[in-house]
Amino acid sequence: MKNTLYIIIVVSSFFLLSCSENDKNTIQSFPDRASVPVLRTTDIVTMVSDSGVTRYRISAAEWAIYDKAEPPYWDFPKGVLFERFDNNLKTDANMSSDTAVYYTNSELWELTGNVRATNLSGEVFETQKLFWNQKEERIYSDAPISITQKDKKINGTGFESNQTLSKYTITKVTGIFPIEE
Q: Which of 42, 44, 67, 147 is positioned for an S-S bond with 154, CB 3.0–4.6 A?
């Protein structure tokens, strides 16, 4: 009985000494949930089909989903590539950029840095910033843009287009244009 009491006193002393104010171990709090992605993944390739036929491929080196941010968004910090396929699975139109952000609620893409798009007619659109509003089926920018066609190059600042880049308007046109007399 005396040994048991001695053991209890010794164990209690160790316990009390280990709980001193100066030796508290604290766990750092979790950062703001809105600033932490719910998913981060690398080397993404996804295919999109329409009526069982593969029509689109989306590729990205990195993808992060911020579902608690306001507004929620997807981040593609290393760029994104969109490709459209014809019936023979050959790329007939594409769009790429150095970085991209997709705002899920508004269905708005913001592409920045070396944005390049090729439409079904082979026209090449180049700018540093471009917005693609999927709800409105509209692509637009207020940045300088260069459009290369088969026989001429058009430069301007700002443009608006349908989402296939087949009908577009350039806001402030600059450049040299061949004119037939």
A: 147
